[in-house]
Specification:
The complex is a heterodimer of chains A (about 110) and B (about 110).
Chain A: E1 3-6, E2 11-14, E3 19-21, E4 23-26, E5 32-38, E6 44-50, E7 56-59, E8 62-65, E9 75-77, E10 86-94, E11 97-100, E12 104-109
Parallel strand pairs in A: 2-12
Antiparallel strand pairs in A: 1-4, 3-9, 5-6, 5-10, 7-8, 8-9, 10-11, 10-12
Chain B: E1 3-7, E2 10-13, E3 19-26, E4 32-38, E5 44-52, E6 55-58, E7 64-70, E8 73-78, E9 87-95, E10 98-101, E11 105-109
Chain lengths: ~110, ~110
């Protein structure tokens, strides 16, 4: 079956620290992979995506590379800001459905 | 462009009362539609998804139900709310390339 596993939080970092949020997936076929971000009290917004192996998605300084050999799509940012505080969801799209991880809460402190 | 509307934004309901949350999509036809619940501090739980009018799949047994009376309308209902139904409810629709979320409904059952 299809599923997504991401590291549990919460994660607390100081401003300008390096961020990694791990995500691995299980899927039949060739899924597309996504990171979504949820700011407090809001719905989810697409942060970045990759549709095939070795693709790198990037947006707002965040990056993630589709690694088929390790079935991973880890989210990284070189220098986080207070405004990056949010919940981050890894997801995959296969067939007619989206499958989401449980979310990782990130808090960035000044 | 495609948009998704979800209302109300917040709702406080007594235990045992009925529930109706509505979601409508504009700018697309025959979308896949989803209802998710997010309990406080937890990830997304898929409640229902629909691939067409009158076609509803339930992911978890519960006292909630969903209906799709029109192509771009998705309704989440309950006849009698429980305290455990409190949470943040998100409606979404998807293409294979992306999922789009509403702003969510904060439901508090008292």
């Amino acid at each position: 079956g299809n599923s997504v596993t991401q590291m549990e939080g919460p994660v607390t970092l100081s401003e300008e620290a390096f961020l990694t949020i791990n995500c691995t997936y299980t899927a039949t076929g060739y899924p597309s992979l996504f990171w979504y971000v949820q700011y407090p009290g809001e719905g989810l917004q697409l942060l970045l995506k990759a549709t095939k192996a070795d693709d790198k998605g990037s947006n707002k300084g965040f990056e993630a590379t589709y690694r088929k050999e390790t079935t991973s799509f880890h989210l990284e940012k070189g220098s986080v800001q207070v405004s990056d505080s949010a919940v981050y969801f890894c997801a995959l799209s296969a067939g007619n459905q989206f499958y989401f991880g449980t979310g990782t809460s990130l808090t960035v402190i000044p | 462009s495609q948009t998704i509307h979800q209302w109300p934004a917040t709702l406080v309901q007594p235990v045992g009362s009925p529930l109706s949350l509505e979601c409508t999509v504009e700018g697309t036809s025959n979308p896949n539609l989803y209802w998710y619940r997010q309990a406080a501090g937890r990830g997304l739980q898929l409640l229902f998804y629909s691939v067409g009018i009158g076609q509803i799949s339930s992911e978890v047994p519960q006292n909630l139900s969903a209906s799709r009376p029109q192509d771009r309308q998705f309704i989440l209902s309950s006849k009698k709310l429980l305290l455990s139904d409190s949470g943040f409810y998100l409606c979404a629709w998807s293409l294979p390339s992306e999922a789009f979320f509403g702003q969510g409904t904060r439901l508090t059952v008292v």
